Amino acid sequence: MATKIRLQRHGHKDYAFYPIVIADSRAPRDGRFIERIGSYNPNTNPATISLNFERALYWINVGAIPTDTVRNILSREGVMLMKHLQGGVKKGAFTEEEAQRRFEAWKAEKQAKLDAIRNKERDDKKADYKKAIAEEAKKNEAKAEAVAKKKAEIAAAKAAAEAEAAKAAQEAEAPAEEAPASEEAPAAEA
Questions:
Q1: What letters, b where the CB count within 10 A reaches 16 and e where it falls short, cover 113-137?
Q2: Which residues lie across from 3 on neighbouring strands?
Q3: CA 5 to chain CA centroid, nearest Å
Q4: What is the dihedral of CA 21, 27, 30, 33, to 10 degrees?
Q5: pLDDT at 37 over 70
Q6: Please, what sign has the CA dihedral across residues 79, 85, 89, 95?
Q7: What does pLDDT average to over the chain?
Q8: Could you tell me if 87 and 111 are in contact, meaning their C-beta atoms sit under 8 angstroms apart?
């Protein structure tokens, strides 16, 4: 029986997640499986992988064949490196302690790279946020200036209208006072 390490598709349309399973190569993709050793969720950023390292290493050592995607996942998690290091121990190239030390060094280096990427993404997000806030403040200042200018124009127009109304009212009162005086003047002449 040829065993494969492969992904089963679960979830719904446009939101799939994948259990990582050990299955007979003749079984359907989402059918029977021997053991579930982890899961892979590509919908998160970065993709979430949970893996039972010891069981994955066991199945690789007994000859289970991973699919291409699962091979990439196992490489990313270090299962393939550990298999390689165990082969070196069997051949006598180095000791078990040396293999473990190399694996821990690789793991620490990989974690440092991932942390650097996460920190860079976080810093980029912060910088973008600060830039967006600054742009929004500039837009708000421009709007405030436009509103203040418009209010000033409205107030000036209102003041001008009031001044004209007051001037018109004075002019209307002034001829009304002069008119009776002019009426008396022709009567006095007669």
A1: eeeeeeeeeeeeeeeeeeeeeeeee
A2: 24
A3: 33
A4: -30
A5: yes
A6: negative
A7: 88
A8: no
pLDDT at 179 exceeding the cut of 70: no
**C-alpha span between 177 and 142 (Å, rounded):** 52
In CATH terms, the superfamily for domain 3-84 is Ribosomal protein S16 (3.30.1320.10)
pLDDT in tens, 111-132: 999 899 889 989 999 999 999 9
User: For residue range 135-158, what is the model confidence (pLDDT) as tens digits?
Assistant: 999 999 999 999 999 999 999 889
**Which candidate, 9, 77, 72, places its Cα nearest to that of 43?**
9
Q: How far is residue 184 from each of residues 7, 136, 180, measured CA to CA in Å?
A: 114, 72, 6
SS3 71: helix
Could you say which DSSP state residue 109 is in? H
State the alpha helices, DSSP H only, in 1-95. Answer: 53-61, 68-77, 79-91
**pTM assigned to the model:** 0.65
CA atoms of 64 and 159, how far apart (whole Å): 90
CA distance 53 to 105: 17
